[in-house]
């Protein structure tokens, strides 16, 4: 009898432990925090932390073994992505029928079909499994426009995939496969990543036969922007070898945690030259959750264009370099306009965090949810004020970017020529005519004006803080400028307002 009671006690303890464990782990799986917020019924991210970073290094053999463990931990979470797109072949060169010996190797589309026939273009990339139910992070350019998407897993399964959502502004996308037996990778905190840390890149460079290639390097830099790859850039730069086909693959730290999605390389030859870029995992995770929950990414919108303060602008406006960003255009009816923000204001702080660059501020605004109330410290003509405003949803079409006009040879002392924007000139340049508007019609490519960024087609709004309301006023101001003087211009370009400062 005693033995029976003892057995029942043990059975009850085991049952109780199982129930408590299930409750704890279900809470871990279904309440994943992102930037302090909790998402109920969110994707089932991996939660079990790796312990590779604590692996003891006592010899060259143990050092080697540490990297082996990192690769073995992360590689099963990386897949090869294949895409197919059917297009109409419109125009073919006779030489297209022969192709090149590198087409298959680089995953290039098949070519060489007669006019009017359909052609299947095939692409190849990489992806990272981030949930145990089959959600996969990759690059938008890997799957964009594809009619068919499928993956090949670590255990050589070929599975059809569905596109869940795309975000071209970060070049990220999410696809989903309906299958089981996946090992999701643990998503790390990219904000904690430091320059000089060891990282490993995993992907399928150059072709399917090289699937899940592992390369090693360090974090070369963080916060890389103005690379020209996406609208929102905050790239991790690495010298881990990345080649065509690696796009969408994993960048992991020494613990095997995902810290970035490999996106592109900087190369003169198209091959590896030691400069690769990855989207940080924190940015990728935010996009991932938005795409899974709603199929799109909604970003905060302030309604301004901003620019960094360079040395010349700092001198012209009596500002300090590296402190704040300069406001150019303020969109009518936008949150910024409603709160009184003006062209020429300098934004010093955003939500109590000092603003050091325009890219940093732009990303910070975009990360906020529409409807969020934010606070900014703004400097205007030497005085500082606190502005509080409610962000709105970013419109589908933002303020247009500038397109430089053709350069012309001039000999003007200022480095550029300007004319009144007449009705005929406005029609020829496809611009809106306005009384008294003055437009730059030619600029010397070797001048300080051109070097500072001024371009033909820019409309001059003010010179040295004096508004330009007519060509005669412009001429009168220009006559007072002497060689060596600092010229401080506010111009309009493609609907945006931009400041320039340079010595004539």
UniProtKB/TrEMBL annotation:
Substrate binds at residues 84, 141, 171, 245-247. GO terms for biological process: proteolysis. Its main location: periplasm. GO terms for cellular component: periplasmic space. It is found in: Periplasm. Pfam families: PDZ_2, PDZ_6, Trypsin_2. Gene3D superfamilies: 2.30.42.10, 2.40.10.120. The keyword Repeat applies. CDD domains: cpPDZ1_DegP-like (cd10839). Residues 291-382, 402-495 form the PDZ domain. InterPro entries: Chloro_Bact_Ser_Proteases (IPR051201), PDZ (IPR001478), PDZ_6 (IPR041489), PDZ_sf (IPR036034), Pept_S1C_Do (IPR011782), Peptidase_S1_PA (IPR009003), Peptidase_S1C (IPR001940). The active site is at residues 141, 171, 247. One of its GO terms (molecular function) is serine-type endopeptidase activity. Keywords: Hydrolase, Periplasm, Protease, Repeat, Serine protease, Signal. NCBIfam families: degP_htrA_DO (TIGR02037). This is Peptidase S1C, Do. It comes from Chlorobium ferrooxidans DSM 13031.
């Amino acid at each position: 009898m005693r033995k029976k009671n003892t057995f029942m006690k043990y059975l009850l303890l085991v049952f109780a432990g199982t129930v408590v464990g299930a409750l704890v782990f279900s809470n871990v799986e279904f309440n994943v925090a992102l930037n302090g917020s909790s998402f109920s019924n969110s994707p089932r991210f991996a939660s079990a932390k790796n312990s590779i970073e604590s692996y003891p290094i006592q010899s060259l053999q143990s050092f080697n073994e540490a990297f082996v463990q990192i690769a073995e931990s992360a590689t099963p979470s990386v897949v090869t992505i294949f895409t197919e797109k059917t297009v109409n072949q419109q125009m073919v060169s006779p030489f297209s029928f022969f192709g090149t010996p590198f087409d298959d190797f680089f995953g290039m589309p098949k070519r060489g079909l007669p006019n009017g026939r359909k052609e299947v273009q095939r692409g190849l990339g990489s992806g990272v499994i981030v949930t145990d139910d089959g959600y996969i992070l990759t690059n938008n350019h890997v799957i964009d426009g594809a009619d068919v998407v499928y993956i090949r897993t670590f255990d050589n399964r070929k599975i059809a995939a569905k596109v869940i959502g795309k975000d071209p502004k970060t070049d990220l996308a999410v696809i989903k496969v309906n299958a089981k037996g996946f090992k999701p990778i643990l998503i790390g905190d990219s904000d904690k990543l430091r320059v000089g840390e060891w990282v490993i890149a995993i992907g399928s460079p150059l072709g399917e036969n090289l699937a899940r290639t592992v390369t090693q390097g360090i974090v070369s830099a963080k916060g890389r922007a103005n690379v020209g790859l996406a609208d929102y850039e905050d790239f991790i730069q690495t010298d881990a070898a990345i080649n065509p086909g690696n796009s969408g693959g994993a960048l992991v730290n020494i613990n095997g945690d995902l810290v970035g999605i490999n996106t592109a390389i900087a190369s003169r030859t198209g091959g590896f030259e030691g400069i690769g870029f990855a989207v940080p995992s924190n940015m990728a995770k935010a996009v991932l959750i938005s795409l899974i929950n709603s199929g799109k990414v909604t970003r905060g919108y302030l309604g301004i264009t901003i620019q960094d303060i360079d040395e010349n602008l700092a001198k012209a406006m009596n500002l300090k370099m590296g402190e704040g960003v300069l406001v150019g255009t303020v969109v009518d009816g936008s949150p910024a306009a409603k709160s009184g923000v003006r062209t020429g204001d300098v934004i010093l702080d955003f939500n109590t965090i000092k603003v050091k660059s325009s890219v940093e501020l732009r990303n910070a605004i975009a990360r906020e949810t529409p409807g969020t109330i934010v606070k900014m410290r703004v400097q205007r003509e030497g005085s500082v004020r606190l502005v509080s405003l409610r962000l709105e949803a970013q419109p589908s079409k933002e303020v247009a970017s500038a397109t430089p006009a053709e350069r012309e040879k001039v000999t003007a002392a200022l480095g550029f020529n300007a004319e009144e924007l007449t009705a005929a000139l406005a029609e020829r340049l496809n611009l809106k005519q306005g009384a008294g508007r003055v437009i730059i019609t030619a600029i010397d490519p070797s001048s300080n004006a051109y070097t500072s960024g001024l371009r033909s087609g820019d409309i001059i709004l003010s010179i040295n803080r004096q508004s330009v309301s007519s060509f005669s006023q412009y001429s009168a101001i220009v006559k007072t400028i002497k060689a060596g003087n600092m010229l401080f211009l506010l111009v309009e370009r493609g609907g945006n307002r931009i400041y320039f400062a340079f010595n004539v």
